[in-house]
C-alpha cells in the first residue's frame, strides 16, 4: 500500500511536470513565431521609409518638369517678341496696301500667339506654386514618418532582444524540468507531441470529457484516470490525459 501511494504521488508529480513542460513548449512556440515575424515587420517599416522617399522624389520631379516648361515658354515668348519687333520694322517699310494688310495680319497673329504664351506662363507659374507647396508638404510628411519609423524600428529591435531573452530563459527552464521527468514518461510525452504537433499533448479531463478533443471518456476509464497512478491516453484522440479534479 505504501509503495502504491508513493507511485501515485510520484505519478501525480510527473503529470504536473508534464503540464508545466507543455506550458513552456507552448510559450516557446508563441515566442518563436513572434521572433520569426520580426524581419518582416522591419522590412515593412523600411518599405514605409522608401515610400515617403518616393513621394518626395515624385514631387521634386513634378516641380522640375514645371520649371522646364516655364523656361521653354520664356524662350518661346522672347522668340515671339523678336518676331513681332521684326514684323514691325517690316511694316514700316511696306510699299503697297496689300503688303501693309499682310504685315498687319502677321503682327496680329504673332500678338495672339504671345498672348497665349503669356496665359500659359501664368498657368505654369500657378502650377509651380502648387508644386512647391506639395513638395514642402511631402518633405514634412517624410520627416514625420521617418521619425516614427525610426522609433518603431527601435521598439521592434528591443522586442526582438526581449523575445530572445525569453527563449533563453524558457530553454533553461525546460532543461531543468526535463531533468526531473522520468525517461519513460518523457518518451510517452514526446511520442504524443510528435503525433499531435501544435496544441495540447497532455489534456485535462473535466466532467468526463477530454479537453483535447471534447469527446466523452468512458466511465470505467474515467474512474481509472482519477487514480492518477499511471499515464492514460484518451481513446478518441490518443492524447495523454489527466484528471482536472472534477
Ligand atoms: Zn481526446
Work out the strand percent: 5-15%
Tell me the number of strands. 5
Structural class: alpha+beta
Count of individual helical segments: 5
Shape: rod-shaped
Could you explain the architecture of this structure?
There is one protein chain. Strands 3-2-1-5-4 form a 5-stranded mixed beta sheet. It has helices at residues 2-36, 38-92, 97-178, 183-196, 219-227; strands at 202-206, 209-210, 215-216, 232-233, 240-243. The protein has 246 residues and is α+β, with helices and mostly antiparallel strands. Helix 1 packs antiparallel against helix 3 (97-178) and helix 2 runs antiparallel to helix 3. Helices cover 79% and strands 6% of the residues.
What's a quick, concise take on this entry?
With 246 residues, this protein is α+β, with helices and mostly antiparallel strands.
Quick tags:
5 helices, rod-shaped, alpha+beta, binds zinc ion, about 250 residues, 5 strands, about 80% helix, 5-stranded mixed sheet
Topology (elements, then pairings):
Blueprint: H1 2-36, H2 38-92, H3 97-178, H4 183-196, E1 202-206, E2 209-210, E3 215-216, H5 219-227, E4 232-233, E5 240-243
Parallel strand pairs: 1-5
Antiparallel strand pairs: 1-2, 2-3, 4-5
Helix pairs in contact: 1-3, 2-3
Residues 203, 210, 212-213, 215, 234, 236-237, 239 line the site of zinc ion.
